[in-house]
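JOB MANIFEST
job_type = single_chain_structure
chain_count = 1
residues = 246
[input]
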Amino acid sequence: MDFLNQIRKRQRELKLSNILNFSPLTNEERKHLIKIYGLLAVGTMITALSCYVDIYFLKIPRFIASMVSLFCSFALAGSCSYSHYGNILPGASKKRLLYFAGISSSIGILMSDYIAYVNYLNPSILPLAFFGSLSIFSCFSLSAIFSKNRISLFLGTVLCAVCSYVALISFMNFFIRSRYIDATLLYVGFFMYMGFVLFDTQITLFDFRRGNKDYIMHSICLYLDLVGLFTHLLRILGQKEEKKKK
């Protein structure tokens, strides 16, 4: 009977307001995170849509997509100073959202060739990579939000060092052409992006508490982390499928 009473009590307490009660966060921080993850979801959908259009309907030149991505990145970075503390005009905010959409769509176009190839190898790899990377991203991001300590803030120096070494070894491997180095870099990059999810999530909260309310730049950082996780996981699964078919 006590067991049944406990179940009934938990059922009464299982309300949407209790589920969405992020007690470690203030109301302003919650609103800021809702904006960030909402824009992140929109960016992901734009990337998926542009990738789908490029594969099945209209083949867009990669040079144009690269130029659009480069232009939007510089334009978005250049507009940071105006929006750092939320003092930004509505027209400028719309422009920055367009820059974000331009980056998202161009990344989808640039990824489309490899996504089409992996889908040709095994159609089940693509949803597995997407939902796998989304699950990893969600777990690490939530753990960073609800973490009482801010140890992952110190990951920045470690991640930057790892990123530098990965870039250097990748450049060297361009001439060496070693499959073992390439595979090692792939897994190192995958775990590196896991660390970046932790780091960028806590940096977002840290910046907000210092007065930086630029949710668009915070969104683009987390968006790039999610894209990095997805592409690395897609390559890992794709290479395993290639080995099976050899």
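[summary]
Residues 1-23 have pLDDT under 50 and may be disordered.
Residues 29-245 form one domain.
exit_status = 0
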